[in-house]
Amino acid sequence: MDMLRHPRLQRHWLILVLLLLACTVPSKGAQSPQDDIFNASGTGDLTRVKALLDSGTDVNAKSPNGGTALEFAACFDKVEVVRLLLARGAVIDVQDNNGASALSLASEKGNLEVVEILLAKGAIVDSKSNDGWTPLMAASSHGHLDIVKLLLGKGAEVDSKEGTGATALMKASENGHIEVVRMLLAAKADVNAKTTDRGDTALIYAASNNHVDVVTLLLDAKAEIEARMAHGSTALMVASENGQLELVKALLAKGANVNARDDMGQTALMLAAYLGHIDVVEALLSKGANVNVRSDGGGTALSAATEKGHADIISVLTKAGAEQ
User: Which pick of 122, 211, 287, 304 has the fewest CB atoms within 10 Å?
Assistant: First the structure.
């Protein structure tokens, strides 16, 4: 048959290479004074940092990837070294080759006191990496609630978008950080913002990762339950395809359209039937899923189950009135 499996939602695991690179302390061995200050700053060797600065080492010298001593100290949460470097004239908003700043590194790592120091010294709260990531996105993605609160209090743009159009709310939703999601919503984050590459929303991110509590919170905040991502799929289709029964039930209880169709004419029932999720099939049928609707290619839920040999689903669909 010509039933096409619906393309799975691919997660936006945007790897923060800029952060990982900036947090790599140079290896020990024969080192220049510049290399030595990066190592000493990253390991918190305050005495050595002082000695190097007193001997004339440039406080703003850059490592091969463009990072400075301040970035190494901020990344590894070396508070006293951060204070010393700032007192000795470290440029606070310098960015490495990938656009990472000391504030973005500290925010991503959850180093609250360092973030407080940098903001108090005037660090740019919405500095952006080359990929468009802000400190708020980094903190939200990793669930650092206190830092999110601090950044918002300093005026961070809640709906700033990175290169693909993703926001801090999407990143927190993707990783299931419900308290961060709650805080961003209270700060008036756009609950229905969409990415530019796939059209994903915070709801789609949460649904694709089976974060039922976050999905419920977003829906209570008026997230569009029928929002469509690439290929026209909805949160219910994603949950049905992935066999996420609890999430399917939650979406149906909130009024999700059980017979919505994607760009290929497929429904949640077809996807669940094809992939063998009998409990999801039964849940969809109980809410009025059309058992005989056909995709653009002429396939049905029954033909999908038959193709994959899911005898239990074939039986359930047949009893529900499915026709060949």
Answer: 122
CATH value of 233-324 in 2.30.30.30, 3.30.2000.30, 3.30.590.10, 1.25.40.20: 1.25.40.20
Per residue in 144-172, pLDDT tens? 999 999 999 999 999 999 999 999 999 99
Q: How confident is the model at residue 35 (pLDDT cuts 50, 70, 90)?
A: confident
Contacts of 39 (CB under 8 A, 6+ apart): 25, 26, 28, 31, 45
Count other C-beta atoms under 10 Å from residue 225's C-beta: 19
Asked whether the predicted pLDDT for residue 88 surpasses 60, the reply is yes
More confident: 7 or 146: 146
Neighbour tally for 310: CB within 10 Å: 21
Residue 16 has pLDDT above 60, yes or no: no
CA distance 212 to 223: 14
Task: Spell out a b/e string for 266-297, using b for 16 or more CB atoms within 10 Å of the CB, else e.
Answer: bbbbbbbbbbbbbebbbbbbebebbbebbbee
* Burial (0-12, 13-18, 19+ Cβ within 10 Å), 27: exposed
Query: What is the assigned CATH class of domain 15-157?
Result: mainly alpha
Closest CA to 203 of 248, 165, 232, 169: 169
Whether the predicted pLDDT of 7 surpasses 70:
no
Burial of 157 (C-beta count, 10 Å sphere; 0-12/13-18/19+): middle
